[in-house]
Amino acid sequence: MRQYRQSRMTWVHRVNITPCGIYLKGPIFEQRNRVLRKYIHHNSCFIRVSVVEEDGQELAHEKHTSFDKVIERHIRPYFGSLVSKLRIGQQYFHFLGYSQSSLRNHSCWFMCTFRHAKEGFVGVDTLIRNLGDFSGIRLPGRYAARVCIFVI
After folding, report:
1. Alpha helices in the chain (DSSP H)
2. Mean pLDDT across the stretch 32-48?
3. What are the residue boundaries of the structural domains of the chain, listed by start?
4. Predicted local confidence at residue 1, as pLDDT
5. What integer pLDDT is reported at residue 126 of this predicted model?
6. What's the CA gap between 133 and 136, in Å, rounded?
7. Number of Cβ atoms within 10 Å of the Cβ of 92
């Protein structure tokens, strides 16, 4: 049983975005998802990004406190548009996707472009296109559920 459980796990680097800074963590042993299983030899090209408090706990909302400036200065630059990116060293990671459970945990996935032996250069657009044909889906909620990249 333990070997089976470990075969479904992989090492993933994490990034915590807090009101005061960006902190790198890991790698942490996590359960694989469909993308990590497909690109097993490129796991270092994927990072899980969480928005948390300084102590790593869920972002707390105080009743009489406005988070507008914190969001504008420290969070929106990474999530404000589809071309948002996060630079770590010399590598740029682009927003990739999220699942329902990662939304509850205030986290999502970013990836950097890499070269795959069969598919050539794989970036966000290529990866999503390789997941399947979703062009027939017209309802936004259904589309999001199908394209939701990190379904286990």
Report:
1. 2-7, 34-38, 68-70, 76-79, 100-104, 124-130, 140-147
2. 83
3. 2-147
4. 47
5. 85
6. 8
7. 12
Length of the chain: 152
Of the candidates 24, 124, 139, 33, the residue with the CA atom closest to the CA atom of residue 84? 124
At residue 56, φ and ψ (nearest 5 deg) are 90, -5
**Measured between alpha carbons, how far is 128 from 74 in angstroms, rounded to an integer?**
27
State whether residue 128 is helix, strand or coil.
helix
What H or E segment, with its residue span, contains residue 97?
strand 91-97
Report how far residue 146's alpha carbon sits from residue 142's, in angstroms, rounded to the nearest whole number: 6
Question: 50 pairs with which residues across the strands?
Answer: 16, 107
Query: Residue 60 corresponds to which amino acid?
Result: A
The pTM assigned to this predicted structure is: 0.77
Nearest to 95 by CA among 108, 104, 106: 108
| Eight-state DSSP code of residue 16 | E
For residues 66 and 60, the answer to whether their CB atoms sit within 8 Å is no
The tokens for 149 are 């990249």
Per residue in 100-144, pLDDT (tens digit) is: 677 777 888 888 999 988 888 888 888 878 777 777 877 776 666
Distance separating alpha carbons of residues 127 and 113, to the nearest angstrom = 10
